[in-house]
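Please complete every field before forwarding. Incomplete forms are returned to the sender.

SECTION A: IDENTIFIERS
Entry label: holo-417
Bound molecule: zinc ion
Molecule representation: SMILES string

SECTION B: INPUTS
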Amino acid sequence: MNDEVTTRRAVHSVPEPGFGEYQTTCLIAARLGELGADIGLGCEILVPELRMGIPDDVDRRWQQALDDGCDPEIMAALVGGLTGVVGTFHGQRPGRVVAVRADIDALPLTESDSDDHLPHRLGFASTRPTAMHACGHDGNTAIVLGLARRLADRNFAGTIKLLFQPAEEGLRGGRAMAASGVLDDVDDLICIHLGLGAATGTVYPRTDGALASVKLRATFTGIAAHAGLAPERGRSALLAAAAAALSVHSVGQHGRATTRVNVGALHCPGGSNIVPATATLLLEARADDTEACDLLVTRITAALQGSATAYGVTCALETVGQAPAVRCDADLAARVAEAARQVSSVTRVGDSLTDRASDDAAWLLDRVRTHGGRGTYVVIGSDLAGGHHEPSFDFDESALRIGVDLLDRVVRTLGEP
Ligand SMILES: [Zn+2]
Ligand SMILES: [Zn+2]
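SECTION C: PREDICTED COMPLEX
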């Protein structure tokens, strides 16, 4: 079993959702430290108040990770869910600044315990009941750590920064990392992702069509009352939320952009004999154009407020995740493709993968572009068992070594002055 596979399995067995990736962060930081990288943690790599959708249990998880034996020195920088790491390697010769980004978070899912599911059969499945690496971020992490091991030879030009970003799922961590300035001296940024429908051996040097997205939490507050004795005194938050769910799904379409809306959850505590006073909707907007997405959010906000007004309740809106559309630099993608063709384990180099998901790597790519650099989102193919975000998700581990070989070639090429 090669190093990447060992790392992947270690990360896979301890999946941690966004801003709770304490053990994962400690594992990565310790490895990078052993390899002699300069380590950035906590406020050095995140603007805390620009994080979105921070869960309520980050402090409990922090304590748990400390009790489970995480390094207190590293943990001190992560208080309050400031997870993630940046490792910097300086080459022997002067050159350009190249960055590679992996995401490190898991999903709130229960992993399959079917014997068909390899992680279960081989004993490295999730040890956490309601968390799972079901998107391949364990693999993304293992690939970039594998690259770090190669870079320890320092036999390259320039500076290479390895970003391990927290809380990609729900688009919650990218903005805070971008705004920290950690990328402001970067010439070329390579964001990677495993799978996404591409077969093992295939590399796509860029993606197109990934959607800008905004995730919202709408909290409706009304007045509770007895449903039989005095319903006229009540104001139903549930009815307002239910009406809002329908009107959000009927907001106007867009002539030039592909758009999506989805109300994914309606939470409302109560009983049959009470007019319910609180209800929460979780919803999202997506579009292949950032401005169209913003317009969609304006319309959705009006629909939510309109329903609240109609039912005499209030609606408080919170943005719990957000990312612009992913935009890739064509010249950089061409350089990546050229390097990929020289990697023997890469059997096919595609042009551009059309992807209708969203990724908050878009914040990082935009930041680099704003500072005069280039960025692209590279897909490293891997045959999949189960789709992304499914309990049976798994990927072909032979893709990990291919990813390391690819990035090793790419960053050494790009670093040359
Ligand atoms: Zn995902
Ligand atoms: Zn993912």
